[in-house]
Amino acid sequence: MRDPRSLGFNKLAALGALGAVGGLLLILAAVFVFLHPYPRGGMDGTEYALTLMAFNGLFGAIIAVHLAFAHQLWYAPTANREEQPR
User: Fold this and answer.
1) What does the alpha-carbon distance between residue 63 and residue 24 come to, in Å, rounded to a whole number?
2) Could you tell me the residue range of the domain that residue 63 belongs to?
3) DSSP one-letter string for the chain
4) What contacts 56, CB < 8 A, 6 or more positions away?
């Protein structure tokens, strides 16, 4: 495994963006599990579906932006090398 100090700021920022994606996916998984409708009360199926659509749209957009930032940061050219092929 490479020493994190040799990665440079861009690659560490890209890893941070990927970590944020992982955290958002965990929050989204918790929404799926903990807001599930139960027959004894709580949310009904319609409210559950609307809540999941809202959370999926919001978190999906934030995750997509973080993945785009991570890609741009990881493949950003540095001063000591040319453009890296993708």
Assistant:
1) 7
2) 7-74
3) ---GGGT-HHHHHHHHHHHHHHHHHHHHHHHHHHT--BTTBS--HHHHHHHHHHHHHHHHHHHHHHHHHHHHHHT---TTS-PPP-
4) 28
**How many domains does one find in the chain?**
1
Alpha-carbon Rg for the chain in angstroms: 19
Structure-token pair, residue 81: 């090398």
Can you give the pTM of this predicted structure?
A: 0.76
Q: Are 13 and 73 in contact (CB under 8 A)?
A: yes
Q: Is the pLDDT score of 38 beyond 90?
A: no
43-72 pLDDT per residue, tens: 888 988 999 999 999 999 999 999 999 999
Could you tell me if residue 84 is inside a domain? no
> Taking the CB of residue 48, how many other CB atoms lie within 10 A of it?
15
